[in-house]
Each structure stands twice: as C-alpha cells, then as structure tokens.
Amino acid sequence: MCGGADNIILFNRTHDNEDSGLQFYNGATRNIVAVNLAYRNGDHGIDNLGATNQTILGNTVFQNVTAGINLEG
Description:
Elements: E1 8-10, E2 13-15, E3 22-24, E4 32-34, E5 37-39, E6 44-49, E7 55-57, E8 60-62, E9 67-72
Parallel strand pairs: 1-4, 2-5, 3-6, 4-7, 5-8, 6-9
C-alpha cells in the first residue's frame, strides 16, 4: 500500500494476495507505476483510490477477482 509521493514502482510481480496487488490511496501522488505484473489477487490487480496525478503505464493484469486496474476518486 502506498500513500506517498514521487515513487517509481517498476518490474514487480504481485499475485495471490488476499486484497489488491498494488494499492494507492488518498495522499499518494505523482507516482509512476509501470511494467508490473499483477494476477490472481483477491480484489484488484492495481487499486488507485483517491490518489492523484498517478502514471499507470504498461502493466499486465489478469485473473484478479474484482478488476484488473481500479481507478476511483
């Protein structure tokens, strides 16, 4: 889970988590989320809830329970 700013999240593999693979919430801003693999997570592959100015690019997401990439707020 990330609530910070100006992070670069690259080349990660997240799978079989109870909740989302990568999570960004209120307060997270200006993060780059690229070339990650998120699959078979219990909620979303990538969850962006209320985070602003995010760059989400070139990720592969599949077989997540709720959604591959969730953008809210």
